[in-house]
Amino acid sequence: RSAFAEAYLRHLQASGEAPSHLQVASAGVRAYPLERAEPAARRVAQSLGISLDHHRATPTSADLLAAFDRVYFMDRLNQEILAEDFPHLASKADFLSVWLDEGPLEIDDP
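RESULT FIELD:
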């Protein structure tokens, strides 16, 4: 999910539909370093014109999270893990779905 969100924002930036000054990165709370995106996620992304072929998983870390002004998570489980592992993030973390006009709060795995 976060790999797609990162790639989609980069796609929007390249097309001029999102501000180019925004920095974005994908990381997983329990990611295995350098693992590829799931095949199902790659297929869904490809059907929407987004490639995840070059994506490699990055685990969350204090250094990575400190580099960003905002941190977004997809679901309550990730929210709980982030709150437990990085309690100082509470003021800059939120559901990614806050950017959607409608739909569920949590974004499910494909």
